[in-house]
Each structure stands twice: as C-alpha cells, then as structure tokens.
Amino acid sequence: MTALAHSSIWFENHGLLFRAPFLISGLNETDPPTHAGRSDVDIVHGKVPTEEAGSRMAGEHEIRGADIVLEISGTGRFLMQDGRRIVVDAQKNADQGLVRAFVSGPAIAILLHQRRAMPLHASCVSRNGGAIAFVGDSEAGKSTTAMLFSKAGYDILSDDIITIRQREKLAMVNPANRSAKLWDDAARMLQVDDVLTEPEYPGTAKKLVTPSSGPSTPQRLDAIFILRWLYPHDMAPEVRRLEALDALGQLRKNIYRPDLVKVLGLEGAYMSKLADLVRTTPIYVLARPRSDVRLPDIPGIVAGAIGLQSC
What we know:
The chain is of the alpha+beta class. The protein is 23% helix and 34% strand.
C-alpha cells in the first residue's frame, strides 16, 4: 500500500484500486481516495534489470522469488512485484499505446495471479444486475460476442480477462477493462462507428472499441458460455449445458496465463474456486458459425437458454 501522488490517475479494476502515471482506455477511472490516499496496486515507470541469477522460467515469464518479469520484444519489460506493484520499463521509441495495452492485459493478469485472484480468459456483459461471461481461447470471438451483446442493450463489464468472487451462494464478476478488441471486419459487421474506436496494436487491423460507460460495481454472474465455432458456416447456433465435471475441465483450460498456476503453487486454490463456481453457476457451450447472417440471433438464443427475457 502506497501514498497518494497528486499527478496520478486512479482506476478501479478487478475489485482493486490502481494508481498509474498514465491513462489506460477502458479502465474504470475514479476519484482519488480520501482515506489517506492509499492504493491496492501502483503502476510506475522504472528500470527492470535483465535476467537475474537464480531466476526460473515458466513459459515466457521469469520468476524472481515473489516477483515476475514479462519481456515483450520491441516494447519493454514489465515487473510485477508481489501483487502490489507493476514497474514498466519501456524500450526507447516503443509505441506507448502498445505499452499500455500490455499493462492493462498481461501485466495486470500476472499480478492477479500473484494475488490468487484466478483470472479467466473471458469477456463479460451485464444487464439489470445480472452478468453473462463468454470464455474461450484467443480468436474464439470473445470480444466480438461481447460487442454484439452491447449492441443489443447490454453493458460490457470486462473484455478478455475477468475475475470472479463468491458471495455466499452467488458468483460476482468484478468490473474491469471495458475496451473490446475487434478486427476491422468484425467492427464493420457490428457497425461500431458510434463508439470510440482507436488502433490497438501498431501494424495490425485490430481496433480498441471503448463503450462510453458501464457498471462500476460487481454484478451477479448468471451463466458462463464456453465459445466454440460451428462448421459449415451456415449452421444455426447451438447451446448445450455442461455437466459439472466437464464444466470444471473447460474452465480450468481457460485460466489466463496457465503457465503460472503450477509454478506459483495455485493449483489447489484454483480448483477449489472453480468447484465453487460450477456449484453456483450454470456452464454452457455456445457453438456458432462464423457468419454475420446468424449473429443477430445469438443474444436471444443465449437469453432463452438461461431463462432471461430476450433482447
């Protein structure tokens, strides 16, 4: 916990209060705290030393005791310190938008592991206090699905990474990064010109699409949908509910940055969290074609599957 700096920007993200020296699109900006100016997590600029003696690798992550370093070629090094601090060591001439994208995504996800918060690779939308999460690998269409529901009257609660906490017999999703990452063709298909659109990664056709507002408090999780593609592309979307054991396995596969789970000794704690989640929340598979013709049907199909009023 660290003291307030007047030039800082404050964010609420994954149930934590962040203090940063720069604005990050999609995070829930908030007023500085009045209780002696304390933060849960600080994001700072600084030097991150190169590989240290005695460190070990877990995938692309360098483990230095309680600290973890992520090095991104052409961008810089990011040091996550004991779940409380992110040090950003950007390379000279690195694109600042790219630096901030890695802070708001992988760096914060690694820090969440340090705090035993179990980040899931998912996007989440909400309406009337209830939330629906869409879980899947990269390129599974999580952001596109979230934006599709946004166009149907839902708020985007978080894109790409979610954290869930149990409250008695309810699972609650914390608001986090609302900016959806869409390829150009998906942005055109969903007609998102009415919201803020900006380049995300230099040299790619992907865009960062940020809705103007969203919930600032945790929302009740009504259902989780594991995303799958259907072939051929003219097939109708399908929904089926998973049995508990299958649901547990599917969710385990979609923990964000899974290389860190074993090396940080989180397997038991995370399995307990997943078991609680499966007991309180229905888990479905949502299989849909890569076809814009079928897209408008999906919100109604999902709402019908979980007994909500159709969009």
